[in-house]
Amino acid sequence: MMQSETALGQVLTTVDVVVLTLVDGVLNVVLVQRERAPFAGVWALPGGYIHAQEDADAHASAARVLRSKGGIEDAYLEQLATFTGPARDPRGWSVAISYCALIPQQKLPAQRPGLKLVPVAATGQLPFDHAQILQAALARVRSKSQYSSLPVHFFGESFTLPQLQQVYESILGEPLNKVSFRRKMDELGMLEPVPGEMQAGGAHRPAQLHRVRPEFRQQLALSARGL
C-alpha cells in the first residue's frame, strides 16, 4: 500500500545564491542578515523558499530571491548544485538548489541595511551548510575561469585587457603570461573594442577599452584548452 504524502512528510524546497564580486581585486561574497528563525540575526547567503505559484522555474526563484533579499538585479546567474538531507536545516528534511551569481561591485545596492560584502576567506561560521555551498561556488568559478569567459561578468560595460587579466589572475591565484592570455581571449571571441574609447594610463600609453559582444552577455564563451 502506498504511503500518503502526509505520512511521508513534507520536504522543504529552497534556493540559495552565492553572489560574488571583486573589491580591490579580492573576491567578496554577499551576505544578508536573516530576519527569521532559524538563525535569526545571523549573516547568511541569500536564500528563500520556491514559490510554486509564482516562479516559472528554480532560476526564476533565485532571481526573485536576489531582488527581494538583496536588491540585486542583472547579475550573471548559473545553477551550481543541489544540497539535500535531514541535517542541513533544523526545520527538517530539505532540498536546496544553489546558484552562483557574479556581479560588478558598482551594480550592488549601496549601503543597503541587512546586506554586507565579506572577503570569501573571512566569512567566519555560516549557518546551515552555506560554507559548503560557498566552497562549491568558489571551486566552480576558479575551474571555469581556466577555460571560459566567466570572469568578464565581474565588469561593467567596458574594461581594458590588462584589467581583465588582473581579474583572471585574482581568481586563479597565479600570474598569467600576457601573450598567452591575449591569445586565449582572441580564441574565445567574446570581446570587441569600444570604438574610439581609450583609458588613460598615467605614465603608460592609453589602453583600448573593450566590451563583451552582445551574444555573450548572458552566456559563456568556452575554449577547449585552459589558460
Automatic annotation (TrEMBL):
Residue span, Nudix hydrolase domain: 15-110
Pfam families found in the cross-reference section: NUDIX (PF00293), WHD_NrtR (PF21906)
Domain NrtR DNA-binding winged helix as annotated: residue spans: 152-211
GO molecular function ontology, one term from the record: catalytic activity
PANTHER family named among the record's database cross-references: ADP-RIBOSE PYROPHOSPHATASE (PTHR43736), SLR1690 PROTEIN (PTHR43736:SF4)
Entry protein name: NUDIX domain-containing protein
Organism encoding this protein: Comamonas koreensis
